[in-house]
Amino acid sequence: MEKLRLFYCEVVGLAVGYRPPFASAGYWLYVGERDVLHLTESTPGETRSTEAVTTFDHAAFNCSDRMAFERRLAEHGIQFKVARVPQTGQIQLFFRDPANNGVELNFAS
Predict the structure, then answer these.
(1) Taking the CB of residue 12, how many other CB atoms lie within 10 A of it?
(2) What is the CB-side half-sphere exposure of residue 88 using CA atoms within 13 A?
(3) Distance between CA atoms of residues 108 and 2, nearest Å
(4) For position 48, what pLDDT does the model report?
(5) With the C-alpha atoms ordered 58, 63, 67, 73, is the resulting torsion angle positive or negative?
(6) To which H or E segment does residue 104 belong?
(7) Facing residues of 93 across strands?
(8) Within a 10 A sphere around the Cβ of 31, how many other Cβ atoms?
(9) What is the layout of strands, in order, in the sheet containing 15-17?
């Protein structure tokens, strides 16, 4: 969980914010005043599949300053793919987090 928290804060630019006092450990990660990603450890006795390579395809975030993000990804040694959305010209960066979940950063053209 700490690797994921660090990744999403240092690489994606989210910030740890208020999280209600749940019984399980975890973090709510924010963009500004909005919580956008919840990281939670399983509670004692809770079973989660360990056979899935990943549990979802990807999380997508609207961003600005594409070049700064590309530098940050390079500084962290994270390989990424660049794509352009047909018709809108929007630029997307695709990469993987430490748990192998997909991450998509979107930038206006």
Answers:
(1) 21
(2) 9
(3) 31
(4) 65
(5) negative
(6) strand 102-107
(7) 82, 105
(8) 16
(9) 15-17, 26-31, 34-40
Whether the CB-CB separation of 90 and 106 falls below 8 Å is answered with: yes
Q: Which amino acid is at 19?
A: R
The token pair at 25 is 């450990």
Q: How far is it, in rounded angstroms, from Cα 43 to Cα 47?
A: 8
3-class SS at 7? helix
**What residues contact 52, with CB distance under 8 A and at least 6 apart?**
none
DSSP structure string for 73-98:
HHHTT---EEEE-TTT--EEEEEE-T
The encoded tokens of residue 9 equal 């804060």
DSSP structure class, residue 51: S
pTM (predicted TM-score): 0.84
The letter for the amino acid at 74 is A
Going by pLDDT thresholds of 50, 70 and 90, the confidence category of residue 7 is very high
